[in-house]
Amino acid sequence: MLCKVTLIAVAIAQLCVAAPAHRDVGISIALQKNSSLTTANGTFNHAAAIRHSVKVANKYRQNLINFHKNTGRFPKNVTTIPPPKLMPSNLRRRQNESLEDIGDDTEWAGTIGIGTPPTPFLIDFDTGSSDLWVPSSSCADCGAHQTYDATVSSSSVALEGTFEIEYGDGSTTSGPIYTDIVTVAGVAARNQSFSAVTQESSQFSEDTIDGILGLAFPDISNLGQPPFFQTALVQGSVPEGVFGFKLSSNDSELYLGGTNTLLYTGSLEFHNVSEVGYWQIGGASAVLNNDKAIASGFDTIIDSGTTIMYGTPSDVNAFYSAIPDSQVFDQANGLYSYPCDSPPSLAFSWGGNLWTVSEENFNLGETEEGSGQCVGALSGEDLGLGDNVWLLGDSFMKNVYTAFDFDHKQVGFAALA
Ligand SMILES: *[C@@H]1O[C@H](CO)[C@@H](O)[C@H](O)[C@H]1NC(C)=O
Ligand SMILES: *[C@@H]1O[C@H](CO)[C@@H](O)[C@H](O)[C@H]1NC(C)=O
Ligand SMILES: *[C@@H]1O[C@H](CO)[C@@H](O)[C@H](O)[C@H]1NC(C)=O
Ligand SMILES: *[C@@H]1O[C@H](CO)[C@@H](O)[C@H](O)[C@H]1NC(C)=O
Ligand SMILES: *[C@@H]1O[C@H](CO)[C@@H](O)[C@H](O)[C@H]1NC(C)=O
Ligand SMILES: *[C@@H]1O[C@H](CO)[C@@H](O)[C@H](O)[C@H]1NC(C)=O
Ligand SMILES: *[C@@H]1O[C@H](CO)[C@@H](O)[C@H](O)[C@H]1NC(C)=O
């Protein structure tokens, strides 16, 4: 609880000192990240990684359901919706969790305000989903989180319908839908649809973040409503339909209404979105040690709300098979290890530059202290994304500046300054 308060205070403080580089153009929001899948002693946090993968799989399952509901289509060659993924029983709801264990949140969090007067929420800005939700004041099991109370916001309007995400253990995150004013730094979206959830899966109630703000396209919105950024764009609150992310361990930023040119060098290399819904771009290759293309011609979803990278099980197996002395670490979860002292170099190309994942960003930590084997941030787990789609999360995004352009439906990468 104390920890939570501290987190929010830090986020607000950062917000206040974050003098935007170009206030006339767009607005910077400082993001913070408190931990990762690597423990303090340098070992891989296996349980946290599995919990995160289950969350990601269920998120994409829901995205698929939403996509189909909204468009009548299935993205790519996916014809069956996988069952919700089950959290291994030993990793389910952990009662009596000590504060220092709140270490496995892996989101990039920043604050937003909802309502009149605004209530501050610590939010995960997620380019892999399209809805905003926070806990409701009438939620009994939402953990130690900030909550939304519709009765104290003069601008709150209740809508019909329900928001619901289903999990493999039978739990759901669900609640009624409202519109209200939502502000992110100086950017306001009036009448923004969101859910104030009255029931929360334990995966979220234990999280340090209060909720999620989705930054993908309306096609995958569970609410079937324009996401925050579209609303802000239509209402003229941002000068253009572009936002930029810099994710790093100490000075991360989301820039709304353009890109922050101080944070990258050269120009952005843009690629058209191949599947409007996700920030998905096609024609990708994965290259090992600047030499060998392990896989090519696949699509990639660029997702700030996912921590590591996932490829198809066969491609990922081929990747690690080409690394001497690599080993399967966890078959069921598609995890592999490699010799820590001779790390592989993984790079992606979409037909332009090679964008390399740094050694630091690829290494999730030693399998156990002194083993000399490190777990790689590329997993070969089937998340139900289809047979030709990889999911690139923070382990990739931390190596580049990323621009998400709604106006031209494209994603751009540039070298970090
Ligand atoms: C999170 O990081 C900030 C600094 O970035 C620090 O002040 C704060 O105490 C951290 N919170 C936790 C829970 O580790
Ligand atoms: C390193 O951290 C892991 C996870 O927190 C723990 O299980 C392990 O015992 C630690 N090792 C040492 C030597 O402290
Ligand atoms: C879809 O994928 C399956 C295998 O996953 C394959 O057998 C089938 O031919 C594919 N269909 C199309 C239209 O590509
Ligand atoms: C949690 O702690 C309470 C009181 O300290 C105890 O009664 C309860 O059995 C504990 N629950 C678990 C799951 O350890
Ligand atoms: C928001 O909705 C109210 C009615 O609920 C309407 O009067 C107002 O014009 C709307 N504002 C915007 C910016 O759409
Ligand atoms: C942020 O990290 C970079 C490289 O990791 C380092 O050079 C820089 O000093 C750090 N800045 C702060 C404010 O800690
Ligand atoms: C990208 O899309 C635009 C239309 O939005 C089109 O004019 C352009 O040719 C496309 N570029 C490529 C490389 O397909």
UniProtKB/TrEMBL annotation:
InterPro entries: Aspartic_peptidase_A1, Aspartic_peptidase_AS, Pepsin-like_dom, PEPTIDASE_A1, Peptidase_aspartic_dom_sf. It comes from the Eukaryota. Signal peptide: none annotated. One of its GO terms (biological process) is proteolysis. PROSITE patterns: ASP_PROTEASE, PEPTIDASE_A1. Keywords: Aspartyl protease, Hydrolase, Protease. GO terms for molecular function: aspartic-type endopeptidase activity. Belongs to the peptidase A1 family. This is Acid protease. It comes from Dichomitus squalens.
